[in-house]
Design goal:
The protein is mainly alpha-helical and about 170 residues long. It folds into 2 domains: about 90 residues, no CATH class; about 60 residues, Single Sheet (N-terminal domain of TfIIb), CATH 2.20.25. It is built from 7 helices and 2 strands; from the N terminus they run H-H-H-H-H-H-H-E-E.
């Protein structure tokens, strides 16, 4: 049985009903995710996913709607923000999982940043070293930092992580 985009949109509305009671808001979220999916599916860099454009749109729609549903169910702040319109439904598809649920993703992003810093060469460590004080031991000679992107590449928002080589904080 072939699943169509309409089948997935109906299914997504059913799942959204469990989280959001406002039918108009659910429809607006669905439309914004669909429009984002069409936009993403039209980009040339995703042509390897499927040779047919509707297949790519369906892929992106499922992926993004699952992410939004998961984060709406597991992050009450996001759900309240969307329900009270302090977070615009049009921006939901453009938000990364880290932005939708920072509490869940903070430890993961921090671990990735630490692992990235461990791969720095000595020259890179010298370049980044000593610009910040360690919060725990107060030393500055052994601190290094790295900027990790927390949003999509085109939105230019990074979070800076500072680590101390002495106390490993």
């Amino acid at each position: 049985m072939t699943t169509t985009i309409k089948d997935w949109r109906d299914k997504a509305d059913k799942y959204l009903t469990d989280v959001i009671s406002d039918a108009i808001l659910r429809k607006n979220i669905d439309i914004s995710v669909y429009n984002w999916s069409v936009e993403e599916g039209a980009k040339g860099k995703w042509l390897h996913l499927s040779s047919n454009r509707l297949g790519r749109v369906l892929h992106f729609y499922r992926q993004k709607m699952r992410s939004i549903l998961f984060n709406l169910k597991n992050n009450n702040d996001l759900l309240i923000g969307v329900s009270t319109h302090t977070i615009d439904f049009k921006t939901l598809p453009y938000m990364s999982p880290e932005t939708m649920n920072p509490v869940l993703w903070a430890p993961i992003v921090e671990t990735v940043a630490k692992n990235k810093m461990k791969r720095f060469t000595n020259e890179e460590r010298l370049f980044y070293a000593g610009m910040y004080l360690c919060e725990k031991c107060g030393g500055e000679d052994h601190t290094i930092y790295i900027d990790m992107p927390t949003r999509r590449e085109d939105e230019n928002q990074n979070k800076r992580y500072v680590f101390c080589m002495i106390c490993d904080r």
